[in-house]
Amino acid sequence: MPCNELVKLVNVVKVYGSGETRTYGLRGVSLTVCSGEFIAIMGPSGSGKSTLLNIIGLLDKPTSGKVYIDGVDVEELSSRELAMLRNRKIGFVFQHFNLISRLTVLENIELPLIARGVPRRARRELAVKALLRVGGDTSWLAKKPTQLSGGQQQRVAIARAIVGNPDLILADEPTGNLDRVSARTVVKTFIELNQAGQTIILVTHDPEVANCARKIYVIRDGRIVGKLEPDPSKCILNTVQ
């Protein structure tokens, strides 16, 4: 089956600081992600996982190398064009949820749609649909995020990520702050989204989460050092503890 290249990185280097304080976040990473894939990226703390995800998500720029999103060379885009591409093509899920505590669940989910100028009624309809799609409950809509459990907050964060129907979901340690039961629910949600055609790149340090993906890349010291074949029997949904 031909690969529709949704993400392509070519020899991407990321350097922080200069002189004696110069440190490498990434050291020449090349990676291609096809539309519809579910990829896990594993590695120890400080290996470059989050740096890689931030560059793919257009939250950071490489020091050198090329980044293409759906065939577009992002280096050629203005700041406004980058923001538009990020809003329309990419949804983010973070370890700490990154929900805005002063807003309701509904308002949090609607945020990506406001930047697109979607009318209020349509925003609500899309937000409700997204929340239900990830196993949420409409009774949460008027609540503040702090009134929900960690697992519920993460489902709200996933709903916010998918509400605008982006091509790509980027998840940075999405189960890192969750208990095992909540982690299973979140992983199951990602699997269902992928089965429906969503492309997912998930960063994790947990092998039981990584083994639920379709491909596993290992990153160490800013380099992709290997590719592993996932073992579904070791996926968190299939293991007992």
Automatic annotation (TrEMBL):
Species per Swiss-Prot/TrEMBL record: Hyperthermus butylicus (strain DSM 5456 / JCM 9403 / PLM1-5)
Keywords: ATP-binding, Nucleotide-binding, Transport
Coiled coil location: none
Annotated protein name in UniProt: ABC transporter ATP-binding protein
GO CC terms: membrane protein complex; plasma membrane
Gene Ontology terms for molecular function: ATP binding; ATP hydrolysis activity; transmembrane transporter activity
SUPFAM superfamilies membership: P-loop containing nucleoside triphosphate hydrolases
Organism domain of life: Archaea
Domain ABC transporter: 7-240
